[in-house]
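Re: that backbone. Tokens:
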């Protein structure tokens, strides 16, 4: 079970609790700091980020849920996985350069997943990469440094759910096979979590935000969210807080994410209660079918599928794409290839994605629209007819042309809307982008 480094635990939790003293009181309303508001605006325009699921579970090559799905006890997990995790080929500079070349603006990496294992040098426990693996080094610190050096922002994923910590009790819907004692101190676990968050927000420089997951394991528990969110905003006012709880955002959250779904959709079956709020949006999805490294998953999405996912996400005001590195620290060549292909496409068409907002025409079966300044970008992802009827956009239309500007697009506008005439034989196989130029006001 978990072993603590007792003195640092007391100091770390004491510091976290002291900071929490300045958090919200009952009845207060969260008002984001000016730095946070600016960070939200940046996030809405960044459009594309890299999600990295990496942990000792990569040793099994069977995804990040292997402890739960294979009913591995905490004792067996500690014996069989960390001693064989030795990512000697880990190259954070190459990782960040790959993300940057793909056109990504930020990275989100798992600092602690549901197995409770910290991928950083936590002073609150020895259940971490420094103390339990032959690698013996913090992998987050050099990644944070490379992100700063190469101009990308860094988010830390942190699992509120913990299959290893004895004080994560009463148990939730998962982690029932870990073999832990049927007792524990829930508030002590929350203190531990706040202590680790304090480490992440004080030891790694400027952090873009915290990406929470696992609340759904115990939705009726008292998670002390005001206290935890207040801690984060106190330590780093610019840091954005989001939670993958599949519901409308809670007070203190700064962005809303949708797992394997576009905002407002529920194809994955998890977002039936995820009412779209007023915060910046993000959707996350995988290149194959797995988050963590899965050596048997070869169901890779094509370049077309990924680019269209990025485009649709922009039309809905969101996006994030995942890779799961191998236990030696390398990223599968299929992932590298797909990201390079997407980067090439964004290098040519990024004007219609970066810095845009979704709309003004709501998403349709044929595609989406994005807009920036006096331009509306119409992304035709699935259209085979010569006429395209659209709702009439706001303002006077100065003209409509192809994205490259090599042809004008005939159109008719009347009281019923706007109709574009486009030869479907000229359609781009991935995304036909038509540009509506609005007259300056």
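Recovered sequence:
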């Amino acid at each position: 079970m978990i072993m603590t480094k007792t003195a640092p635990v007391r100091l770390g939790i004491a510091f976290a609790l002291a900071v929490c003293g300045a958090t919200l009181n009952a009845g207060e309303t969260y008002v984001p700091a000016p730095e946070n508001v600016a960070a939200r605006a940046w996030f809405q325009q960044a459009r594309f980020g890299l999600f990295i699921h990496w942990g000792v579970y990569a040793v099994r090559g069977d995804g990040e849920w292997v402890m739960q799905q294979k009913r591995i006890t905490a004792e067996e997990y500690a014996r069989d996985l960390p001693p064989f995790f030795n990512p000697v080929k880990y190259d954070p500079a190459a990782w960040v350069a790959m993300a940057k070349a793909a056109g990504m603006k930020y990275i989100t990496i798992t600092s602690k997943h549901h197995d409770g294992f910290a991928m950083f040098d936590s002073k609150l426990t020895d259940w971490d990469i420094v103390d339990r693996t032959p690698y013996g080094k913090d992998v987050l610190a050099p990644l944070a440094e490379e992100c700063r050096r190469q101009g990308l922002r860094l988010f830390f994923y942190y699992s509120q759910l913990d299959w290893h910590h004895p004080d994560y009790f009463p148990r939730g819907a998962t982690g029932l096979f870990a073999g832990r004692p049927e007792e524990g101190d829930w508030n002590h676990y929350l203190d531990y979590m706040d202590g680790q968050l304090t480490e992440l927000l004080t030891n790694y420089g400027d952090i873009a935000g915290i990406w929470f997951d696992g609340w759904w394991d115990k939705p009726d528990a008292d998670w002390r969210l005001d206290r935890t969110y207040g801690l984060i905003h106190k330590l780093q006012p610019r840091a954005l807080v989001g939670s993958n709880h599949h519901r409308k955002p809670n007070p203190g959250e700064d962005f809303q994410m949708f797992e394997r779904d576009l905002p407002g959709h529920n194809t994955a079956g998890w977002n039936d209660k995820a009412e779209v709020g007023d915060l910046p949006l993000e959707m996350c999805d995988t290149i194959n079918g797995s988050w963590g490294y899965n050596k048997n998953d070869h169901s890779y999405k094509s370049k077309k599928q990924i680019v269209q996912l990025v485009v649709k996400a922009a039309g809905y005001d969101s996006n994030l794409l995942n890779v799961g590195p191998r236990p030696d620290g390398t990223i599968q060549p299929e992932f590298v290839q797909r990201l390079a292909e997407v980067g090439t496409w964004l290098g040519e068409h990024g004007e219609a994605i970066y810095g845009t907002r979704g709309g003004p025409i709501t998403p349709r079966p044929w595609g989406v629209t994005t807009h920036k300044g006096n331009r509306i970008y119409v992304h035709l992802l699935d259209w085979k007819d010569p006429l395209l009827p659209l709702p009439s956009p706001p303002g006077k239309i100065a003209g409509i042309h192809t994205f490259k500007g090599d042809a004008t697009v005939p159109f008719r506008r009347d009281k019923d809307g706007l109709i574009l005439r486009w030869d479907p034989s000229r359609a781009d196989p991935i995304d036909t982008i038509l540009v509506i130029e609005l007259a300056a006001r």
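The radius of gyration is 23 Å. The longest strand covers residues 106-112.
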